[in-house]
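User: Let's play a game. I give you a shape written as tokens, and you guess the letters that built it. Ready? Here's round one.
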């Protein structure tokens, strides 16, 4: 008799846990759907807000540089820098490593 009561108690507990688990799964699914809807709504709102604000946020500046700092850099500048820093004439046809102030190739 004790074993039947224990088995019944275990079975009831197992069924109770299974029902709770099913309810939790359903609750999580509905919460996930709600979060997805809110996320999509926020994305749509952001998309429409940015589309409306886009023309005014892009102001054209006539003298604005495109960010390319090295546009006027030449080998003459490198040679001048080498003369100033090292005090010698750079060897012709040889690239100079600016960071180390030594020739990259040509010398052992």
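Assistant: Ready! My guess for every position:
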């Amino acid at each position: 008799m004790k074993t039947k009561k224990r088995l019944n108690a275990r079975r009831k507990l197992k069924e109770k846990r299974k029902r709770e688990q099913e309810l939790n799964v359903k609750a999580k699914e509905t919460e996930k759907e709600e979060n997805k809807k809110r996320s999509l709504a926020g994305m749509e709102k952001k998309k429409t807000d940015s589309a409306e604000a886009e023309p005014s946020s892009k102001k054209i500046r006539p003298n604005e540089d495109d960010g390319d700092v090295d546009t006027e850099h030449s080998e003459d500048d490198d040679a001048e820098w080498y003369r100033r820093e090292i005090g010698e004439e750079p060897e012709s046809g040889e690239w100079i490593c600016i960071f180390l102030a030594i020739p990259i190739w040509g010398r052992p």
